[in-house]
Amino acid sequence: MTSDLDPWASRQTETPGFGFLDLQQADHPSSWLLKVSPEITGATGTLHGGCGLAAAAVALEAVCQRPVSNISGQYLARASVGSIVTIEIEQLAVGNRITQATATCFCDGAQVLRASAALGGRDLGVDTSWLHAPEVPAPADCPPRNPTSETGYSFTDNADIRLAGQEPGQRTVHYWARLPERFASTTPGLIALADLVPSGMRVSLDSGFRGSSLDHTVRIASLVSSEWVLLSIEAASIRNSIGHGRIDLYAQTGELLATGSQSFALTELTGGLDR
User: Which domains, ranges and CATH numbers included, belong to the chain?
Assistant: First the structure.
């Protein structure tokens, strides 16, 4: 039943296929097509890098028939709203337990994203995590993050993101985030949300800025279903206009879901803090 007190609940409708990703298989079994809809754009109105890497992960899992363990992407060009991105999968090494593969994404003849991934593994009965969620207020006690896109509509604006603990100038920033149908705690949801490292580093720098991601690495630790995911972002450094940071993502119950790291290029300081 939808709660009148929670407008987000009205958006928890049945989500076919791949959640926020408009993704389908092409004519060749190793090729997939992603439509760049407004729901998966970034602040500038082009394909959100995390969503592009999430789509590559979905295509990799479909072709390789194994779950993504880790994925690294290099962002090469932009893809505008309404365009179609073709994702080409190549399996480089297929072992008894692990597959190593690449995903190359093209739009209008240009490479926009190149990703490499390891998929598979096996259960040896030693699964362990040494990281535990920090103590922060519950999502219901945290204020929502204001829209930050230039277009007024983007992936992060469309998500429910709450400010869970941040002080301008401090290294660590926390957000709660959720997507419809508990999609935030799935592999593509975690990959997309892990692309919030630059947002957290704006708070650490205590200044808004424009820029673009250069790379993005996400390692999946577990897939505990969770309505909310806690993002713990740590700024590392900025040098020669290149920023570096990392992120840990946790379930509401405290389990580590994924870790990630990212580098991005700053093109302009805008002054006002964009949280």
Answer: 16-120 (3.10.129.10), 159-269 (3.10.129.10)
